[in-house]
Amino acid sequence: MVDVVAVVAVALLVGAVVGTVVPMVPGGALSLAGLLLYWWGSGFTEPGLLALAVLSVLAVTTVLVDLFAGASAARYGGASWTTTVAAVVVSIVLFLITGPIGLLVGLFGTVFALEFVLGGDVRESSRSAAYATVGVLASTAIQVLLTATVFLGFVLSVFVL
């Protein structure tokens, strides 16, 4: 039973790393699920409690970054909540049609257009769009690093040490 659980847990952890670059795939939640599944399958012995706690905190941090970092960057750049939500919807639709470039173009374009309509200032609209786009890219990079750290920490604590 532990072998099947180990395979599924590792698949969840690998899927978490890959999934962080795909919109709507909860990489942090997949990491946490993989950790807890393996811990349960090992009879609550592996990874040890300290490793489990540290890796779980990293996974939960990934969830929080996923939920709030991109929107926070957009808001910090001056975009309204309405603009931020509209940009997320448009960018996800364009991602499904055209891939990652569509996501970025949709995000930048939507924030720029809506902020320009609301405020009429090209400079402020550009600033808001740039902050939102950079925020999403930075959020993705942080999530990849966190989920990769969880995966490597898991491998080290369970299979190496």
UniProtKB/TrEMBL annotation:
<feature type="transmembrane region" description="Helical">
    <location>
        <begin position="134"/>
        <end position="160"/>
    </location>
</feature>
<feature type="transmembrane region" description="Helical">
    <location>
        <begin position="49"/>
        <end position="69"/>
    </location>
</feature>
<feature type="transmembrane region" description="Helical">
    <location>
        <begin position="103"/>
        <end position="122"/>
    </location>
</feature>
<keyword id="KW-1133">Transmembrane helix</keyword>
<protein>
    <submittedName>
        <fullName>DUF456 domain-containing protein</fullName>
    </submittedName>
</protein>
<keyword id="KW-0812">Transmembrane</keyword>
<dbReference type="InterPro" id="IPR007403">
    <property type="entry name" value="DUF456"/>
</dbReference>
<keyword id="KW-0472">Membrane</keyword>
<dbReference type="Pfam" id="PF04306">
    <property type="entry name" value="DUF456"/>
</dbReference>
